[in-house]
Amino acid sequence: MPPRQFDGSRVRAVRRGKDLGQKELAAEVGVSGPTVARWESGQDFPKGEKLPAIAAALSQPLDALFPHDGPPDLQLLRCDAGLSVAQAAAILGTSRVPVSNAESGRRRLSDAYVQPLAEAYGVTEAELLAAQDCSFGLRPRTSRDDQASAPRTIGEKINYLLQHGYVGQEAPSDAEIARVVNDHAGVTAVTTDDIVDLRTGVTTEASDVVRAGLAEALQVDAALFQDDAEVNPAARELLEAIRFLGSIHRGQILGLAARGNSGGLSAEMMATINDLVGELKHKLPEVPDGE
């Protein structure tokens, strides 16, 4: 099956609308007339790398004639470039195995193959690596994902840390948070009700003293409660690390593969988390199903 949606009856209708015979289309694409007949009748499907030539012969946009769902993977990039696996491998000066392994999610491309393959496919190296992630079942992060996952208000940050930051232990109550904030400030800066108002969004502002106290109470760097923390890469990385560690406790993540700097955690942070995973899996209490 090609990586794009193929409808033989639609190809036939467009071809007839162009007053083009099956043999003429076949000649444009480089196949036989009977092959086109089998495509149009649904008895067979063209190889993915033939779809760009079919669309061009019918003067149709590729995405309109043969749509696809989701972000592109390596197979789609190759096919959209009109290349077979063997042709892509020839460009790299290697056998078909590295290309096939990467497309099937078995083994990633060697670094030396990224630039020439990106050039052959007509994409940037970043786009090729993102497509490779898709081939390995990893959905690429988008700016919308970042906006959705990064807590912005003080209340969102408090709730985020309470939800994800306490692995195998009870999170502090509103009263406990207020006590630590006041102890850190050396004065009565907030009440329990003030913490509740911050968490629920009734109040969205807090003094620098209160922000520093919240960081102390929730055991994070004070920079996390600054107004620009949601766009600070280090702060965002810390938030994602906390979320991942919380997921380990809930049985959602048992091991993590470093994703580099392509919108996820850095290799250094991932190495630290993976070290913690080994320890936490043996120390955390079992969580009943449904939690």
From TrEMBL:
<dbReference type="GO" id="GO:0003677">
    <property type="term" value="F:DNA binding"/>
</dbReference>
<feature type="domain" description="HTH cro/C1-type">
    <location>
        <begin position="74"/>
        <end position="128"/>
    </location>
</feature>
<protein>
    <submittedName>
        <fullName>Helix-turn-helix domain-containing protein</fullName>
    </submittedName>
</protein>
<dbReference type="InterPro" id="IPR010982">
    <property type="entry name" value="Lambda_DNA-bd_dom_sf"/>
</dbReference>
<dbReference type="Pfam" id="PF01381">
    <property type="entry name" value="HTH_3"/>
</dbReference>
<dbReference type="Pfam" id="PF13560">
    <property type="entry name" value="HTH_31"/>
</dbReference>
<dbReference type="InterPro" id="IPR001387">
    <property type="entry name" value="Cro/C1-type_HTH"/>
</dbReference>
<feature type="domain" description="HTH cro/C1-type">
    <location>
        <begin position="11"/>
        <end position="65"/>
    </location>
</feature>
<keyword id="KW-0238">DNA-binding</keyword>
